[in-house]
Amino acid sequence: MHFFRWTRGVGRGVSADTLGESLFRWFSTLVALGVVGVLVLIATLLFFEAEASIRVFGWSFLGGTVWNPQPPLLFGALPFVYGTLVTSALALLFGVPISLGIAIFLSELAPSWIRIPLTYVVELLAAVPSVVYGLWGIFVLAPVMRTSIEPFIQGIFGFLPIFQGTPIGLDKLSAGVILAIMIIPTISSVSREAFLAVPDSQREAALSLGATRWETTRLAVLRYARAGLFGAIILGLGRAVGETMAVTMTIGNKNVISVSLFDQGQTIASWIANNFTEAETPLELSAFIELGLVLMLMSLIINIFARLMVARVLRQGEGAA
Amino acid sequence: MALKLHVESLSAWYGEKLAIQDITMDVEDHMVTAVIGPSGCGKSTLIRCLNRMHETIPKARVEGKVLLQGEDIYAASPVSVRRRIGMVFQKANPFPTMSIYDNVAAGLRLNGVRNRDELDKAVLESLKQAALWDEVKDSLDKSGASLSGGQQQRLCIARALAVKPEVLLMDEPCSALDPIATAKIEDLIFDLKKDFTLVVVTHNMQQAARVSETTAFMYLGKLIEVNNTRELFERPREALTESYITGRFG
Amino acid sequence: MKFPFNRDTRRRWIDLTMSIAAFVCVVIAIIPLGSILIEASIRGLQSLSPAVLTSTTGQGGIGNAIQGTLILILLSALVSLPVGILTGIYLAEFGKNRLGAAVRFFVEVMTQIPSMVVGIFVYSLVLELGLIGLGSPRLVFSTISGVLALSTIMVPFVARTSEEALRLVSIAVRESALALGIPRYRTILRVVVPSASSALVTGSLLGIARVAGETAPLLVTAFGNNDWFRGVDQPIESLPHTIYIWATGPYVAQNQAAWGVSLVLVLMMLGLSIASRVVIRLRSVSR
Hints:
- The complex is a heterotrimer of chains A (321), B (250) and C (287).
- Chain A folds into two domains: 2-57; 78-320, MetI-like fold, CATH 1.10.3720.
- In chain A, a hairpin with a 5-residue loop joins β1 (67-68) and β2 (74-75).
- Chain A is mainly alpha-helical.
- Chain A is flat, with a radius of gyration of 25 Å.
- In chain A, α6 packs across α7 (172-196).
- A two-stranded antiparallel sheet of chain A has the order 1-2.
- Chain A contains 13 helices and two strands.
- Chain B has ten helices and ten strands.
- Chain B has helices at residues 43-50, 78-84, 100-110, 116-129, 133-136, 149-162, 179-192, 205-211, 229-234, 239-245; strands at 3-14, 17-28, 32-36, 60-68, 71-72, 85-88, 167-171, 197-201, 214-219, 222-228.
- A six-stranded mixed beta sheet of chain B has the order 6-7-8-3-9-10, with helices on both faces. In chain B, strands 2-1-4-5 form a four-stranded antiparallel beta sheet, covered by helices on one side.
- Chain B is globular, with a radius of gyration of 18 Å.
- Chain C has helices at residues 7-47, 50-54, 63-94, 98-110, 115-131, 143-167, 171-179, 184-195, 197-212, 216-219, 239-248, 252-286.
């Protein structure tokens, strides 16, 4: 850049250009820092607003099981944290194998003419709004769960504590299924990227040893991309933890901690969505915001972890290449 | 002299682009056959057709016959063909997530060899054949990616040898290596023909002259001349061959 | 070497089984998508009519929800696109240092904040600002805070897609401009940004799609309104909000109508998604 400053503009504009250059640079830097500043603002403001609740309840907020908006005011987050963890775990349980299958099919096994259209169709899953998944969950999925799937499971595994009670369709299991559907596009597309980053020379190595396509995938692709897959799964988990509407509409909204997946429950996000605007006292509002803070920290930790994993993989990939 | 491979009227395409055209040639058993020619002449495509690796590229297509001891490989399953005809690539491609031992054992495990003694024996033998044993015998559980470039290439050779192929195809195996590592691989090629039949693609004419008995010269997707290596370099029959080996193009 | 008998047959079967299993995974994923589209079309079309599209939710229609969603999207885009694209420019052009790496990392983290959290953040922000005299606590439930919430979600998203779009512009293009003695900022504004314009449009459309279906943050900001748009300081209705209220309401007629609203919203989203593809296609054709 110095070169141009010297050679250019014998007659005109040197100082104007230099000024424009640094103005533009500073302005865009300032805007970018402002965007990051919003993140800082979110964290500090939520902390500030949650402070009253943190001061009153301390750590017992996380362990508390009741939400009592009438005196004596008592607010605990455990049922919501529990619901969030259970539904997210279910989402991973159902979503991960399917997503990996999709990614393997689309990047390794499918005939090439079908890859692009199918990839696009799977990505459309991400274009459906959460609230529409919720609507579908209430009126299509829940009846099917109630009348066929849940009785069927109960018929076989009814002795297990996680399948006790009368199937109602709007419960933790249904919420888990909806979440699984919603995280499929995330996990499958990030996994597909991880597979695409595997050099063809790795596939050729396996093929030339006489490996079948599936063996090539197992030997050369899955192993090479495993850290990227891990990152993809964690990103999916992050999405499941923060998802609000579809879960709110299908989980049944009941503040209980129960083992049975056929029981209703509540997640952090669903509880906030349902009741935030009805907070009756400043302390309850503060407790709601503390819940939001907990949700944000959970999702931030998960996502930072996933990003670091993915970043490490990318660096490794460059090192190996 | 026994005939190992017979290539007949072989043509290959990438999409619409014709890469090699109507090639007919023989590969003798327990000999090294070199394929030379300028970049882009189709020599890599040719040997990739010999173990059906060409067709793994999207939109690639092959016509013609390749007979392995009289059987057409395009009538068999590609998996069994590639087990009988192994391949070493231009750039060493060990599996980076596997140890040296597992790299060599990978092909055997695919074929269901689970017995530890049998695996140990095969790994030892293959690493010795690839002249790598002495350098890695104390670090078999280290990653394959931890080796130097030349060692990685010999590891890939050992991996290919472990499944006991009849033919070993080498696609410019030394192009990414320094002269010392290259010399080691060349010595290795010389030793390997005791047990295997080799086809080596190279852009280096000296290398072809040093290691091979038969040399094929390709130009613009066509096989111009194939002959005894000495003959080809000393008394080329075709004018094109002569101008290439005397360095007038390429 | 002896290989176990029939090993190859078994391997071929495993190969086939795994291929089929992987394909079945794709089918399983497509079933809900297909089911949603079919149900929304069948149930939705029954409940849509010109009268429904032109009346307010108070009157059983969705005209005000469509209007509200368009207003929210338009205002959010007005705020987010310049800020997001400028941040993208910073990341792509000046971000090759430590500060840039940190900004990129945090922007990426921001794209993952749960939208519900963004909602209560904006709620708290507007409330606190109102309490210290900037605006009014009344603005908590208003178009303004809805736009703030959607923009908080949209800006980091647009920043990332813009950065990627700008990075696709080849070095040769930049260098040819710089070699003519054009200063860097003009090169960026006159050469790099226009070359990346279709990718930037794609990113912007995806950013709009990202927020057009958002409901959770609007519950605690835009709130909802049974009447037409009354001004930026008033609560505003939106399509996702209408779906939520009607889907969870006790009346069968409303439940049914929620499918009609969903059809409108899904068609909007698909339209945005397809439009973004078309823009990419156009670019690759013109090259």
